[in-house]
Amino acid sequence: MAAFGLSYGAVAAIGRLPAPPPGLLPFPSLSSSERALLALTVLPHAALALLVLAGRIRLGRRLGFTRPALSRRAVLLVLLWPPLQVAGTALLLLLTGQAPVRAWRLSPSLTGGVLWSWILWLVVLAPLAEEMLFRGDLFGRLSRLLSPAAVVAVSAAVFALCHAERGLLQPVSVLPLGVALGLMRLWTGSLWPCIALHAASNGAVILARVWSTG
To answer: What's the pTM?
Structure first.
């Protein structure tokens, strides 16, 4: 998955992103490059999550969908992280010479059903799929080999590399989120708080982008 993110990012960077065949994907209002980006961003995550879930069910193993042991620090992390994520992403944009308000503007074609499908993916489906992969299966496998700190660090690094499809800015911006999600997994022993934190963080970024567009 990390290799895919890096390879796809290199292809996208040189402007030779292949367009999917007509009629293969929904949302005809999107441009061919936007639809290709949609397909290659969503499909690998969803496919891998389904494979992980199917394998775990077949082998009778748990991914971490257990009752969480919530603590004050876990609750504070869910509440405080979303604005910190937005502020950190804005700072990175400023450091690279980009105005956050301009960089966050949504595509004019991202309206109606396309917009709501995008929001559904980022707030519900992506957190569920990615947490199953990174704080579920990968986290569990690494926990048998490494110390807790190393497990958090390695899972966060792989999580960041898988977001390299648009260059280096996005993986750098999500690396702290990967660390926060790993800590949440350690603190609570469950995937549910990780999914909630991931969804809240993505939701905050969506609100910032919608506000910038308006």
So the answer is: 0.82
Q: Which residues pair with 165 in a beta bridge?
A: 167
| Residues sharing a CB contact under 8 Å with residue 53, sequence separation 6 or more, in sequence order | 63, 132
Q: Which residues pair with 167 in a beta bridge?
A: 165
Residue 143's domain comprises 2-213
d(CA 76, CA 142): 26
Residue 8 to residue 144: CA distance in whole angstroms: 31
Angle, helices 148-161/2-13, rounded to nearest 10 degrees: 30
Using an 8 Å Cβ cutoff, are 184 and 197 in contact? yes
Residue 33's nearest CA partner among 18, 21, 14 is 18
Q: Are 64 and 140 in contact (CB under 8 A)?
A: yes
- Encode pLDDT of 71-118 as tens digits: 999 999 999 999 999 999 999 999 999 999 999 998 887 777 778 878
Measured CA to CA, the distance from residue 181 to residue 197 in angstroms comes to: 7
| Contact criterion met (CB below 8 Å) for 37 and 109 | no
Number of domains in the chain: 1
Helices (H), the chain: 2-13, 32-59, 72-95, 100-103, 112-120, 126-131, 139-143, 148-161, 169-188, 192-213
Contact 135, 155 (CB under 8 A): yes
Nearest to 127 by CA among 40, 44, 207, 202: 202
Q: How far apart are CA 175 and CA 196, in angstroms?
A: 17
